[in-house]
Amino acid sequence: MSYARYSRQRVSMAILAGTTAFVAPAAAVAEESVLRIGMTAGDIPLTHGQPDQGFEGNRFTGIPIYDALTQWDLSQEDEPSTLMPGLATSWEIDPEDDTRWIFELREGVTYHDGSEFTAEDVVWNVEKVLDEDAEHFDASQVGVTASRMPTLRSAEVIDDYTVALYTSEPDSFLPINLTNLFMASPDHWAEKYDETGDSDEAWSEFAADPSGSGPFRVTGFTARERLELQPNDAYWDDARTPTIDRVVMRPMPDANSRTAALLSGEVDWIEAPAPDAMAQMEGQGFVIYSNPQPHVWPWQFSFLDDSPWLDREVRHAANLCVDREELSVLLNGHMGIPQGTVGPDHPWWGDPDFEIRYDPDTARELMEEVGYSSDDPVEVRVQTSASGSGQMQPLVMNEYLQDALAECYFDVELDVIEWNTLFTNWREGADASSANDAHAINVTFATMDPFFAMVRFLSSDAHPPVSNNWGYFTDDEFDDLIAQARTTFDPDERDEALGQLHKRKVEEAPFLWVAHDAGPRAMSPSVGNVVQPQSWFIDIATMTME
Amino acid sequence: MFAYAIQRILYTLPVMLGVSVVCFALVHIAPGDPLISILPPDASSELQERLRILYGFDRSYVEQFFMWLARVLQGDLGTSIASGRSVTLEVSRAVGNTLMLAAVATVLGFTLGCLFGFVAGYFSNSPLDKLASAAAVFGVSVPHYWLGIVLVIVFSVGLGWFPSSGAGPGGSANWRFDYEHALYLVLPAITMAVIPMGIVARTVRALVADILAQEFVIGLRARGLGQFHVFLHVVKNAAPTALAVMGVQMGYLLGGSILIEVVFSWPGTGMLLNTAIFQRDLPLLQGTILVLATFFVVLNLLVDLLQTALDPRIKR
After folding, report:
1. CB of A437 within 8 A of CB of A381?
2. Count of A–B CB contacts within 8 Å?
3. Omega before A465 cis (within 30°)?
4. Cβ-Cβ contacts under 8 Å, B278 against chain A
5. Which of A415, A317, A413 is nearest to A373 (CA)?
6. Looking at the partner chain, which of B42, B274, B278 has a beta carbon nearest the beta carbon of A147?
7. Can you give the pLDDT of all 546 residues of chain A as single tens digits?
8. Any idea of the CA torsion for B266, B270, B272, B276, to the nearest 10 degrees?
9. Three-point CA angle A401, A405, A406, nearest 5°
10. B227-255 helix and B282-310 helix, angle to the nearest 10 degrees
């Protein structure tokens, strides 16, 4: 063989080897399916089992990594999400003690670290937020957990797969509340504790390397930058065992940055895209998913002596004077039109006699009955914010309301303050100096749980500073209806009682119901099997990647 | 020089104490509840009170300040309320990322600023001067977050040349100094460099025009020195002021990059501050501001010392 030929052969082999070296991993990478998500949060929501960042936290670091005793059915998009078994297969109130719930647990469930889920783990996870004397008690998890299950007090093992939970008072809402108590692995925490010798540090280490029993396990974590998940192949629910090889989540608080990242192909899914860019996205083949969420964008009225909302006619007039279809156009159609706190297809609907609709003539008649006219309008002052979680487009929407209500003899003054301050004021009440003499407050809220949706605004026990009855709404009839719902343990009968409460709520109209957030999210067409339920949450486990 | 350096270092101590008081007080003056990041709106007053005690917010401000200062002096900036992570670790990681971005932006801004400044100063009132001055005015005037968004639209979304956000394909934890990662620095660094570039260019132009009009330059030329040697003298005379301006600008780059880091999702101190503000995470906010303020003070100290080394007249 001549030297020249030998050299050419060596070069060819080197090129071939080099090409193979580059092509082989490239082929392997091409086979791996990766779903990259741009979240609205500024940080990765906490990963130790009790996420922060509101329900976005539950959506991305709660439900995918952990399981709770009860969970939301996220497989339907045409009807409201309902409660279904999670790590508990069934539950009932103790016939002898209406503050004691008995939960039967699922057998054969393992955490990502391989340890088995048992009744003792439920007790351990209750203690982590409720028992200050427990070694693993973590103050940072108390706020986001205890308030979402206000009556839960303790837990007790009955046998390996049966556990009793105790409440401070009879409370039929507990199974709904428990969707927020995620089960972290006690064995894995104990390992971290053995390594660090300090409870806080153990939780910190646990958050960086968590172990739940959910459909995904954490395989990479960089604080404030990215969270990487891979399927938990041993997941107990075959229908929810992921087929996507890897999920990467990145915090991207700026809407324009998220939009650019999607358009330039750096991520496959973004939450809350910039409204102005939605048409461009759809034009480029991206898919916008939205569905009304259990969320209300309201004005919550004051019932103090100087409030103009004391007359029910005025409250009804406001609700009849807003053309919500027109407002929806203003928001590119990404809002749900409310007929109450929940809609007619919801188990708590209750069929109210007052219909929330656009009927300005009737609204003006009602206002005239009370003595208002275009020459003598009623002055109302509303406290709101320029931005905030769940607030949608507060300035645009409030200015629209200001114009719309002027047609029905309302002279609206907006008091715009910073979001966190507004949030704090919401707890302080309409009579606090922080309310700045406002007659209504514009703070949006979630309605998945009857306590959050109704009780805290209607109960006389929820006056500030106890809870969010900001306007001091007080009515014995409502207190009775709440007590009735709380002590009715049959789910259907409980929903019927809640229906009665909702019916009366709409009829008395302590709110101006303006919109439901539709939670728009934009995805690449390569993301398949997407079900956008009527929920704050979405199931990543059942999605596919082409 | 040594005595002067010691004297300048001692001057920084009361400044740092003042900085720590302001850092602590500012975040407490702002309205709102410090526990808002971990307390949902429906939290009961009992729960609020319980957490207030657990986090020590029930104590007086003076007590809280001295407890905080004692920990800070031991290098412990506390624990983030929202994440439960060590603020020292969070800030040090973010500072590293911001320093890297600021260093690239500084080199870019200083180089281009000096270039435009010298060109404009040397060719005063010529079309070249007009062009360089226009670039400088653009740099000073353009809102950098707007420029960032425009650069992303053109070069990421439109042309696909550079990534629009993040600090590398695997995040800053897997950062490497290679071509793939360097691409992530390009757009944020250009955006960040524009303002210092404009300021340095305008300063240098004025300095150069002023120096060129001085008698010693005429003397140098009369002695037969070539353009290059005269240029070196001009540089030496302009350098202390240009350095001082750049030192201040670098301080601003370290602390004032919130909008740029948010636009590019760059995991630095600006992003950290943004999150801390929105989560009302007091320990994180205090710790980040303190570290940035310390950088500013130390940077000014270094620039002062460097200026003195370059121009001995200053210490007199």
Report:
1. yes
2. 164
3. yes
4. 42, 253, 420
5. A317
6. B42
7. 343 443 444 434 443 344 334 344 444 445 789 999 998 887 888 899 998 877 888 999 999 999 999 999 999 888 888 899 999 999 999 999 999 999 999 999 999 999 999 999 999 999 998 888 899 998 878 777 777 788 899 999 999 999 999 999 999 999 999 999 999 999 999 999 999 999 988 998 999 999 999 999 999 998 888 999 999 999 999 999 999 999 999 988 888 888 989 998 899 999 888 878 888 899 999 999 988 888 999 999 999 999 999 999 999 999 999 999 999 998 888 889 999 999 998 999 999 999 999 999 999 999 999 999 999 999 999 999 877 767 888 888 999 999 999 999 999 999 998 776 787 788 789 998 889 999 999 999 889 889 889 999 999 988 887 778 999 999 999 999 999 999 999 999 999 999 999 999 999 999 999 999 888 899 999 999 999 998 889 999 999 998
8. -140
9. 115
10. 160
Greatest CA separation for chain B: 85
Is the dihedral angle over the CA atoms A367, A369, A370, A372 positive or is it negative? positive
Angle, CA B196 vertex, CA B190 and CA B199 arms, to 5°: 135
On whether any CB of chain A is under 8 Å from the CB of B91, the answer is: no
Residue type, A283: G
What residues does each domain of chain A span?
A: 3-31, 32-64+214-291+520-546, 66-199, 295-517
Closest to A521 measured CA to CA, from A278, A268, A272 = A272
Q: Could you give the ipTM of this predicted complex?
A: 0.72
> Residue B168's closest chain A neighbor by CA?
A225
Interface test with B, best of A140, A173, A461 (most B CBs within 10 A): A140
Distance between alpha carbon A214 and the CA centroid of its chain, in Å?
18
A223 contacts on B by Cβ (under 8 Å): 83, 85, 90, 93
- Decide which of 3.30.420.40, 3.10.20.30, 3.40.190.10, 3.10.350.10 is the CATH code for A32-64+214-291+520-546: 3.40.190.10
Amino acid, res. A194:
D
| B288–chain A Cβ distance below 8 A for any pair | no
At B98, list the tokens. Answer: 């911001």
Pick the CATH number of B87-315 from 1.10.3720.10, 3.30.1440.10, 1.10.1040.10, 3.40.50.80: 1.10.3720.10
In Å, how far is B66's CA from the nearest CA of chain A?
23
Residue pair B194/B144 in contact by the 8 Å Cβ criterion: yes
Q: Which of residues 29-58 of B touch A (CB under 8 A)?
A: 31-33, 35-45, 47-48, 50-51, 54-55
Q: Does B42 contact A421 at a Cβ distance shorter than 8 Å? A: no
Q: How far is A503 from chain B (nearest CA, A)?
A: 23
Instruction: Provide the whole-model pTM.
Output: 0.80
Topology given in CATH for the domain delimited by A66-199? Dipeptide-binding Protein; domain 1 (3.90.76)
Contacts of B39 in chain A (CB under 8 A): 143-144, 147
Other residues' Cβ atoms within 10 Å of the Cβ of residue A212? 29
Contact check, Cβ <8 Å, A257/B163? no
Cβ under 8 Å to A: B residues 109-128: none
Helix (H, G, I), strand (E, B) or coil at B307: helix
